[in-house]
Amino acid sequence: MTSGHRLTTLESGVRVVTEEMPSVRSAALGFFVGTGSSMEDEPAAGWSHLLEHMLFRGTDSYASLEIDQIFDGMGAELNAGTGKESTSVYSRVLDVHLERAFDVMADMVWRPLIAPDELEAEGRIVVEEIAMYEDDPTDRVFDILGEAVFPGHPLGRPVIGTRESVGTADADGLRAFHTERYAPGDLVVAAAGSVDHSTLVRLVKAAQGFDRSGRRAPAPPPPPEDAGSRAAHVRFIAKDTEQYHLALGAPGIARDDERRYAMRVLDTVLGGTSSSRLFQEVRERRGLAYSIFSFHQSFAGTGQVGIYLGTRPDNIAVGMRVVAEELERLRQDGIAADELVRAKEHAQGRLVLALESTSARMSRLGGAVLAGLPVLSVDELIDRIDAVTAEDVVDLVRELYAPERISAAGIGPQEDAFRTALQPIAPALAEVA
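Request: output the structure for the sequence above.
Response:
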């Protein structure tokens, strides 16, 4: 079965992709731009995120407050997000308001004012956001894990930037950054729900600015060639916290790797559900943590896998020992047939349930087209997951979670206790300076 989406590439390079859902009266609309933190040089670190904020600060046609009032008046949602490789602006509206929403969002994306006084005010807000992240170890530990897994590489930098890089942004520089990065060839307009493809194409063609010249954003530099075999890295921040926040990670698989379906199943088995091995062994059976989970992210050419554990100082050593034992048990013994079936059915169920949302379908369309991935139908996705074997899963965990590949990050009271606790995961981690 093929996907029910329609895709049109305009002469300007803008791609328009839609999926009609006749049973709903709402439409989810998104603008996906191919710029994120992995494409920034160090002096401009965080500028993609700062620019995302500035899109809401007004245009020639709409003041900032007016944008808020328009979407509030439509009973609509308007938000945005920046990641390692993309920036998105998205909304969900009643179908009768789709054209109005498109007009305002297109103006925000293509013609933000970026006035000096507004930039100064928004810069202070972003600095407060950075301070908020730095105060929250459950967020910050993932940023320092990125530094450990991808040392010296843009993928290892936080999306949000730093006080210094945000503070150096001036209006002229950020306007130039916008002109360079928000190029038509790097834009996807996606919609799902009660939407007509031809109508959206017409709106995009008629919108002022979509036909402007501009080069595509520079591709992210490749990750280090030795990312899969390099020595382990450890990062630690001493902080007077009630818990240690520990994250283990390693380079993962790229977003176009066919093993991404087996990766979904592996995460489900390892630490992605309440019946997963780590959740059951660490939390339910031993009471060593409230929060423990595994995760994965995929990028162009590489990815990242990881495990998070938050636990009190007297539990840190035994908690890491249990994690090490579960990884080794999975590497050595594999998974049982019933566990595999349960994990695949969970992955399929979560996928189908999520895609009943217009917003989720829109995000899937925009993200896939921007990344150059095929837009598969729900049935095709289910089939790909169903084809995953136990051997596929075990091969992945043996490759990706090999002890010599694992790096670690931690936030807590004492670095020595943190490093000692890493000994069962990989002896080298306890020794790395």
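The chain has a mean pLDDT of 93.
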